[in-house]
């Protein structure tokens, strides 16, 4: 604290006035600094509020994206399951068709084999009958020499 000199009728006016002027200057500097800081603080609060709003917005987007990803995982798993079932059905149909085709082919092969055996027997019988006919024709030809012609 500053000490003032005494004069008649009290303290030295000039010293007091200088002191008061210094106090006013310092106080106005503090007030000015406070006003500037107050404005800065207000701007920072506004920026914080703005950033909080953006953060909330992005948190909402993140939440929606996570939900979408989960839904897509579920859809993907369902599609895989459906594809597996469809593949199993196609494989079963193919096996059934292949089995049917093989069975039909076996039946057809048996039929062809049966017809082939019948044809071979018929050919054998035909050959035997032809040999008999040829033998008979030979016998007739041999008899022609024995016949006397008058």
Outline the fold blueprint.
Layout: E1 6-7, E2 10-11, H1 13-146
Antiparallel strand pairs: 1-2
Commentary on this structure:
This protein has about 150 residues and is mostly helical. The protein has one domain (about 5-145). The chain contains one helix and two strands; from the N terminus they run ββα. It has one helix spanning about 15-145; strands at about 5, 10. Strands 1-2 form a two-stranded antiparallel ribbon.
> Structural class of the secondary structure composition?
mainly alpha
Give the ordered list of helices and strands: EEH
Strand order of the largest sheet: 1-2
Radius of gyration (CA) equals 62 Å
Question: What oligomeric state do the depicted chains represent?
Answer: single chain
Give the DSSP E fraction (strand runs of 2 or more residues): under 5%
Q: In total, how many beta strands?
A: 2
Number of helices: 1
Assign an overall shape.
rod-shaped
The major β-sheet equals: 2 strands, antiparallel
Give the rounded overall mean pLDDT: 89
Question: In a few lines, what is going on in this structure?
Answer:
With 150 residues, the chain is an all-alpha fold. It has one helix at 13-146; strands at 6-7, 10-11. The termini are far apart.
What are the main properties of this structure?
mainly alpha, two-stranded antiparallel sheet, rod-shaped
